[in-house]
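Section 3.1: Structural characterization of target chains.
Under the original work plan, the team committed to producing a structural model for every single-chain target entering the pipeline before any wet-lab resources were allocated. The record below documents one such target. The sequence was received from the expression subgroup and is listed exactly as submitted; it comprises 291 residues.
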Amino acid sequence: MELDQLHAFLAVVRQGSFTAAAENLNLTQPSLSARIQNLERLLGGSLFQRERRPVRLTVLGETFLPYVERATHILEAGQEALQLARQGVVGRVMVGSTFSLSTYLLPEVVMEFNWRYPLANLYIEAGHTDFILNQLKDGVINLGLAAAFPNLVAQTQVLLRLHDEMVVAVSPQHPLANQHDVSLGELWQYRLVLIHWGKAFDLHVESLRQMVPEPGPVLRVPLAAALPMVRQPDTITFMPRRLAAVSGLAEVYTPDLIYGWDSVLMTRPGRTLTLLEQAFMELVDNVWHAR
């Protein structure tokens, strides 16, 4: 059974005439009739009542029609899917991201990606930087968003570098909210909720605490727990400036805290991105710089 035979059969059904169907398919009438006759021989019976005008289906033809329509629709959908695949708008993108970037960067990226590529599958894994690196090495994900630690950068192919800065973040109702030139002594009078941003930053904060005689206690908690806690007016924390802004927190401007916080979008060394992965990378870049 050939596709041309099925198209000829449907054309006769829709036009109600062999002559009109032949014109519709840019065929001579004998060529069209030959296709129908070959199909009828294959099926073992007549599909049309040829003596009627307009031409009507036989019982065999009526039985066969819904299957032909379904088959041609599936084939058309398949051809469309192949065309989209060649254009790079279908497929799968596997991404790993740190919890913080999943909170303040990825929501907008994911929404825009889904709007532009509705047939593409996008999977996001969240975890700490070490987790993202291991997932990338093992091939579980193909793109990773994580802190730009030197050891991580050395093991991967960096696609984008996203610059941010660590800031002191507090509730808008905090006494120090949006205050400038706040000293470390003033800062440590409040409860410190410390999020784990890596050993290097932990050491940096500890060195700042050692600069004052009696710093207050430290609560070490995950990001998910820190966000509601820092909304209390007696609490401070440290986080990237963009995360603080998205979370509705205010900054405290402390001259002694100068700490760049870069993130990277990475893949495995020597790997070539798919068209969809390239599109995802461009969206990350656009969303980051649009802010």
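The chain has three domains: 3-86, 91-163+263-290, 166-252.
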